[in-house]
Amino acid sequence: MSKKALVTGITGQDGAYLAQFLLDKGYEVHGLARRSSSSDVNLSRLEWLGIEKRVRIVDGNLLDLSALIRTVQDIQPDEVYNLAAQSFVHSSWQQPILTGQVTGLGVTNVLEAVRIAKPDARFYQASSSEMYGRIREPMQTELTPFYPRSPYAVAKLYGHWLTVNYRESFGIHASSGILFNHESPLRGIEFVTRKVTDAVARIKLGLQSELRLGNIDAKRDWGHSKDYVRAMWMMLQQDVPDDYVIATGRTSTVRTMCEIAFEHAGLELDKHLVIDPNLFRPAEVDVLLGDPAKAKAAFGWEATISLEEMIREMVDADLQRLKNKAR
Ligand code: NDP
Ligand code: GDR
Questions:
Q1: Does the pLDDT of residue 282 top 80, yes or no?
Q2: Which of 29, 262, 305, 309 has the fewest CB atoms lying closer than 10 Å?
Q3: How much is the CA Rg of the chain, to the nearest whole Å?
Q4: Whose CA is nearest to atom 3 of ligand 2?
Q5: Which stretches of the chain are DSSP H helices?
Q6: Where is the signal peptide (predicted)?
Q7: Ligand 2 pocket, 89 CB below 6 A?
Q8: Which pLDDT does position 37 carry in this prediction?
Q9: Nearest 5°: CA angle at 218, between 215 and 222?
Q10: Burial of 207 (0-12, 13-18, 19+ CB in 10 A)
């Protein structure tokens, strides 16, 4: 009998790659997704990967506990991956309450559904390097103190500790992955890497002339979503649940990431870059650099795709998308 997984946030970047990964492993994959007025459910990322017909979509929302309980009751999943969130840090200052409800309290809803309807299911929580915020140690590990710097990061910290608490209180096999930034051609357009690769493609094709950015001195430890969803699954295969940092161990500025993208398209960054003060954040996370040693020692995980390879893949995908649209 194939294993069953329930993935919240299946329509997002990681949800799509995780679904593909689990299907390849022979899982029956169920995905929680919400409807909108413009589309039944946004299946575009699953379609991009060609797996939309192989995933079983369940109508639901992280805010609706009764629907979550029924979903877990009906599916009886072996593994539950909680990826759904209001995940854009910048928006979390505009929508702090919604962010708290979905990204924070939503975790309680999913954990309650597991506790009530399938307490022996293994649970994964999508925690974030944003929880470190104002960094006081050069490299962040599972033991580095947290200092969240946005409503999003505060909400993620709540979800992280709740996951630890449900493990300790109820013996649930609950693990929290503290994932550093990870990107791909399926990254949302509002995040800086994809904003840049999309702009580079548009500039190359003569559709746009400038790229407006905020703080280009911020440093991030960027990996590829494909590598990171593998780590989520590996965590849940361990006998004992635990928390793990997933990162590449290399940090780069936003400027460096931009240079890789522009160079790949044969363009000069400084001819097109405009710094826009409106894009700076009320409080910034200046630098993130993760140490994935614990995950490597426990289950042999390491990143395989470099920043350069990933950004070039994203530029090529955006060029292709725009060319297809123009046809
Ligand atoms: P995305 O923003 O691409 O996906 C978020 C998903 O959550 C979407 O499927 C979205 O659905 C869904 N969602 C949002 N609100 C609700 C709700 N109320 N009920 C049900 N579903 C909802 O994020 P990523 O794939 O990049 O990230 C996955 C998770 O990992 C998130 O929790 C994120 O915070 C976390 N994370 C991400 C990192 C990264 O660098 N990518 C790093 C560390 C953590 P819809 O399509 O309808 O909007
Ligand atoms: P982040 O990702 O906030 O780290 O959260 P994002 O790509 O939005 O920002 C990275 C850095 O780039 C700077 N920046 C800009 N960012 C955006 N989006 N747009 C701009 O124009 C711009 N100019 C400069 C930002 O200030 C920041 O320093 C992501 C999300 O996926 C979270 O859900 C996840 O938890 C963390 O990564 C780890």
A1: yes
A2: 309
A3: 19
A4: 89
A5: 13-24, 44-48, 65-75, 91-94, 96-99, 106-117, 151-170, 192-204, 225-236, 254-264, 293-299, 307-326
A6: none
A7: yes
A8: 82
A9: 125
A10: exposed
Query: What are the CA-CA distances from residue 30 to residues 52, 71, 173, 229 (Å)?
Result: 11, 10, 19, 16
CA pair distance 80, 172, nearest whole angstrom: 12
The Cβ of residue 294 has, within 10 Å, a number of other Cβ atoms equal to 18
ipTM surpasses 0.95: yes
Please tell me the number of Cα atoms within 13 Å of 299 on its side-chain side. Answer: 20
pLDDT of 289 reads 98
Q: For residue 215, which amino acid is it?
A: N
Give the ligand with the smallest distance to the CA of 220.
2
Please give the Cα distance from 146 to 128 (Å, whole number).
11
Phi, psi of 27 (to 5 degrees): -75, 155
The domains of the chain, with CATH numbers, are 4-182+224-246 (3.40.50.720), 189-220+251-286+305-326 (3.90.25.10)
φ, ψ (nearest 5 deg) of residue 304: -115, -10
User: Any bridge partners for residue 252, and if so which?
Assistant: 220
- How far apart are the C-alpha atoms of 199 and 279, rounded to whole Å? 16
Residue with tokens 């797996």: 51
- Tokens 């946004």 correspond to 42
The confidence score (pLDDT) of residue 310 equals 98
Residues with CB under 6 A from ligand 1: 8-9, 11-15, 34, 42, 61-63, 83-87, 102, 126, 128, 179, 181-182, 188
